[in-house]
Amino acid sequence: MVTIRNLQKSYKRFRVLDGLDMNVPDGEVYGFLGKNGCGKTTTMNILCNVIPKDGGDIILGDGNSDNEKIKIGYLPETPSLFNYMNGYEYLKYIAACCHYEGDIDKRIDEVMEIIGMREGGRRVIKGYSRGMNQRMGIGAIIFDHPQILVLDEPTSALDPEGRADVMNIIRTLSDTGCTIILCTHILSDVEKVAGSIGILKNGKMVIEGKISDVLMSYAKPEIEVKLFNADERSVKLIKALEENPLIEKVDFYENTGFFVVRTNQLEQAAGLLMKTFGENSIVPSELKAVTESLEDIYLKVVNENA
Distance (Å, rounded) from C-alpha 266 to C-alpha 221? Predict the structure, then answer.
């Protein structure tokens, strides 16, 4: 649905986007990730025709249709609504702005149902909570049936209940076949709703693909071990593990007796650990195999040196 090739944008001598390539699958939620200042907002503003690009191509749809016929709904991090209106009045205003040709009252009821504001919509917007404000912002951008939604930090600063409400709305919209670009720093939200992700760094895409494929390619298995106490035997054990070719790295926290073993050969490494414990008469209080999360991969990618 959204294909970006060699997108470029500079502000004077500062290059924000340096040949960005991006592929957003049709009808999916796409997690658009990266540090502040990496070019995410600039990309979204160019996509929504808020600012011009310096170079590159943006193709919407199947590439055969006119880009201008593809409707995009954009929700900024903090949507500005008219505080003196109630929700129903605001959506009538939105209908007038987009020259909505269908049954306006029917569409308002449909939107209010989707965003869960049938009752709250009668209240004046000035009295809305931040979560209600976000939901009404989503209602505004979906009113005219856009094919693509661009959401910039839609759950930022919301309480757990507000976040859950917004995530449920995103799931509902995704189920209707809408393509959604979700820009957020809350990686757990991305894992819940997104099918694909792209991680942006220094104006370039460094990782992109299905979440399952990204986790399979980049997430390394780990073994977490907790010892009852850290004595000299434990220190010798760690040194012996570090020298073994099965083990890539050992992070040892001597004060707590906790250490993490990183390895690409989980079963063999686990067997080595158990054998080593037995030979040294060490009984761990906890031992479990874990896999790096999307957040672990993200932090590793955005913080490593180019």
Answer: 7
